[in-house]
Amino acid sequence: MKNIRLPNYSIYLDDQWNNLRESIKDYSKIIILMDINSRIYCLEEFLILSEIKKYETIVIPDKDGNCCSDNKTTSDTNKIPNCMEQYKNLDTCQFIFDEFIRLGADRHSLLINLGGGVVCDMGGFCAATFMRGFDFIHFPTTLLSQVDGSVGGKLGVNFKGYKNLVGVFKDPIDIFIFDKFLESLPERELRSGFAEIIKHAMTLNYNLWDQITDMDKIDIKLLLPLIEKSIVLKKQIVQTDPFEKGKRKILNFGHTIGHGIETAYLKRQLRITHGEAVAAGMIMECYLSKLYYNHTEEWMEKILNEFRKFFPKIDLSDEIYNEVLENIKLDKKNIGREPLFTLLLEVGNVEYDLKVPIGSIKDAINFYRTDY
Ligand code: GLY
Q1: Closest-CA residue to 235 (of 23, 11, 19)
Q2: Which of 80, 173, 209, 356 has its CA 20 to 30 A from that of 225?
Q3: How confident is the model at residue 20 (pLDDT cuts 50, 70, 90)?
Q4: 168 alpha carbon to ligand 1 midpoint, in Å?
Q5: Which of 283-287, 334-338, 358-362 is the least confident region?
Q6: Domains along the chain with CATH numbers
Q7: Dihedral angle at the C-alpha atoms of 170, 175, 43, 146, nearest 10 degrees?
Q8: Is the CB of residue 85 below 6 angstroms from any atom belonging to ligand 1?
Q9: Which residue has the least CA distance to atom 3 on ligand 1?
């Protein structure tokens, strides 16, 4: 196993704890941001292994609205909603900013985002903007945030129901991956992250795809090499195009329709994981690839069979269907109102910025509804 170096930071998969101690040693104040799950399942082990003695914590509340923000000796409870995707918004940022003020955060502080994508994206955004920015580290605890969300400097929150509409690009000081935390994740969360590994394979590396097609289920014990490969693939892209002007758009495969689905679910307060939406989006965008490049039925069927092993069909009833189409027109990746797609020339090789007629998008959604 090796550690992965990007221009401004490292991703440690190995000897994380010594490297973490080294990274945090010069800060006046350390604040650990968590949601209730990472507080319950990860904090204790994190504190033992990191040997951090002096710290403050901010905990984003559970679904009953209980929130505690404490240092080692005191705790207090406020009421704000739970830390799921629908609470990745400016209200929760305001709560975090209030906590920064209460805890005396300043430009010499360090925020450690201990949690999944919501914690890393939102915590990073708050740290990057509070007092015009202080340093932060990502310690992603979900597969999704380990292989995708924490890598590449995208930070932000949802706004008026639209995914990640408000945000900035800023790199963390370092990222630490500790795969043992994956053991606390439900199957559904693992699948969510696995969708992004599939995306990296389908768009960038046929060998990784080949490896995935040999799998029947997600085995945590076999995940670390896949995590490493996935991060290395993403790193190669974000290093050449950090601000998504060109090549990084490759990573949007499955996301044009996937974000449309996620936003429709989010607005209705229906639960869907990011990976479930993106997996459905990838299936539909494979269908668009088939139309665009004249791939065969067998090509499509082989891909569908792989997805069927990991991802049950999601509901795309008429109401959601119409909303998905509207959301696609408003996607932040569009130029004007014209949706642009990344499509598969073949598995492991893509083209991006491709215009697709709205009729084909409707066909792709209908194909998913009837044939998946
Ligand atoms: N999740 C896609 C990207 O970071 O660009």
Answers
A1: 11
A2: 173
A3: very high
A4: 13
A5: 334-338
A6: 4-184 (3.40.50.1970), 187-371 (1.20.1090.10)
A7: 90
A8: no
A9: 251
